[in-house]
Design a protein that fits this description.
The chain is an alpha+beta fold. The protein contains six helices and five strands, in the order H-H-H-E-E-H-E-H-E-H-E. It is about 45% helix and about 15% strand.
């Protein structure tokens, strides 16, 4: 019986390697073509993302990809409109207070979106009391009418001098009295002016944050005050 022919090495195996090489070259040229159509800014952003995100210590976790978020830039025209709204709010409060004849201090911080109004306690409360009288309601009513037409949080803070008082209950000391007065103002805004109570917050600092020297009567009078801070919202409406 004739013996079968012995098979030699497969001479077509080189085609597999050659096919892989062609596939890699095709992928390479497609990548070059796609990168040629991208802007330099996009290439820099992708490169930076790979530097930060690939590897065990990447921000995206092991072998993760982290793309740093872009900073939100407020257009100059929007900044101007926002500052103008702050200016109008300041002017409206000043005009309303002038009608009441109340000596008040107004401050504006456009970058923080904050308008601060400081009212002397003598314009709102009798000595040692936390109940609003008729004049206080008139003054706060004028302020509230302005606040009704602006957005943002309203923070009411009570302050006192450092002279001890001998009260009872909620008015047992300067801390309690200052907080009680702030609560009275906030309750008036919510109940009489109909501001949304979710916008309101209160605090009582007592004698902790003086703005003048407590060793003089003039200084103590300046320290007895109610501060109303309006934090406006930076919206496009």
């Amino acid at each position: 019986m004739a013996k079968g022919k012995k098979k030699g090495p497969d001479k077509t195996f080189w085609m597999v390697t050659f096919s892989d090489l062609l596939s890699l070259m095709l992928t390479f040229f497609v990548l070059l073509l796609s990168m040629s159509t991208m802007s330099s800014q996009e290439l820099e952003r992708i490169s930076s993302a790979f530097e930060k995100g690939l590897g065990v210590l990447g921000h995206g976790g092991p072998f993760g990809l982290f793309v740093e978020p872009k900073e939100v830039v407020i257009q100059p025209s929007f900044k101007a409109a926002y500052r103008n709204r702050m200016k109008v709010l300041h002017q409206n409060l000043s005009s309303r207070l002038a009608q009441t004849g109340t000596q008040a201090e107004l401050g504006t911080h456009p970058e923080k979106g904050e308008v601060s109004l400081s009212l002397p306690n003598e314009a709102l409360f009798p000595s040692g009391a936390a109940e609003l009288d008729a004049r206080a309601r008139y003054v706060l009513g004028q302020v509230g009418e302005v606040l009704r037409h602006v957005n943002g949080r309203v923070h009411v803070v009570g302050h006192s001098d450092n002279v001890p008082i001998a009260g009872q209950g909620r008015k047992k000391d300067n801390w309690a009295l200052s907080l009680d007065r702030a609560i009275s103002v906030a309750e008036f805004f919510a109940g009489e002016v109909h501001l949304d109570s979710n916008r309101l917050s209160v605090a009582g600092y007592g004698p902790a944050k003086p703005i003048a020297d407590n060793s003089t009567e003039v200084g103590r009078e300046a320290n007895r005050r109610i501060t109303i801070k309006i934090f406006t919202r930076r919206t496009r409406g």
